[in-house]
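Milestone M4 deliverable, item 7.
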Amino acid sequence: MPAFRLDTRTLTGGVVALALLLAFDLFASLADADWSVEVRTPFGPFSVVTLAVTFVAMAVGGWVARRGFTWVALALTALTWVTVVVTLLAIAGPDSPAQMRSVGGVLRYNATAIVLGLATAWLGAWVGQRLAQRRATVSEHA
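Output delivered:
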């Protein structure tokens, strides 16, 4: 397995993926639409739309980067979840459910979404990288 290195293409892929995630969030807030196609499971809820957006953003990032992007996609997604958890804890008040007033409670409630988000980010990045490598191989043989 090659060592991790952050070259210009990988960094650009990360910026593009993050820009796509932020652009969707901006669009969703400006549209004032309910994008939360939420699935409730015994292990916690998750949003189908969020997973789809994460997949597309990380696939585009992986396509731009061509290689070495899966770790960046995981780091971006993990950083996003850290931000979400900190924000939920910061806005929790005395009238909030008890589970939303502790780190453990917030993590337990969002565990399914976190795990699926990380898996989706990795898969999207991997698919994007493979598409870029396939395209490069076809271009070389043409």
